Amino acid sequence: MESLSHIAVRYAETDQMGVVHHSHYPVYFEQGRTDFFIQHLRPYAEFESQGILAPVLSYQVEILGRAGYGDVLQVLTCGDWMKGVRIQMSYKVQIGEREVARGSSVHGLVGPDLRPANPRQFGPLYQELLKVFPRP
Q1: Are 69 and 18 in contact (CB under 8 A)?
Q2: Using CA atoms, how far apart are residues 28 and 32, in angstroms rounded to an integer?
Q3: 54, burial (CB in 10 Å: exposed 0-12, middle 13-18, buried 19+)
Q4: So where are the chain's domains?
Q5: Could you read off the pLDDT of 6-39 as tens digits, one per residue?
């Protein structure tokens, strides 16, 4: 499963060379995750209200080309896998057919106390996640 997000690059997101600064790609990935959850599950805020949080454990970003002010980025987001209380998502950032960045993020599913929780504690929402995220 994948989702598609469109993001217009703002002037403030570029550096002196007029290129998107690398620090903005994780923000674009976050928008992709938000849209992925809305399109394939439910808004992430509903998971949080039920006591399931998914903090980022790691990010990987690879810059492949230039994106600049006024470009409209297409962020393709995929749910790669879920193993226990960890999920991985991947991202491709394109301008038209040209890929300018790609990356991934790993998240841990935790309870309100920010400790890893037994998946059974998450109830039916965990079953929804299992339907969207393949098992490795």
Answers
A1: yes
A2: 6
A3: buried
A4: 2-132
A5: 999 999 999 999 999 999 999 999 999 999 999 9
Question: What is the structure's pLDDT at 124?
Answer: 86
Coil, helix or strand at residue 56: strand
pLDDT in tens, 73-105: 999 999 999 998 999 999 999 999 999 999 999
Q: Where are the beta strands (DSSP E) in 9-96?
A: 56-63, 72-83, 86-95
The residues near 95 (Cβ < 8 Å, ≥ 6 apart) are 65, 67, 71, 72, 73, 74
pTM for the model stands at 0.92
Spatial separation of the C-alpha atoms in residues 43 and 33, rounded to whole Å: 10
Domain spanning 2-132: which superfamily? Answer: Hotdog Thioesterase (3.10.129.10)
The CA-based diameter of the chain, rounded to the nearest angstrom, is: 50
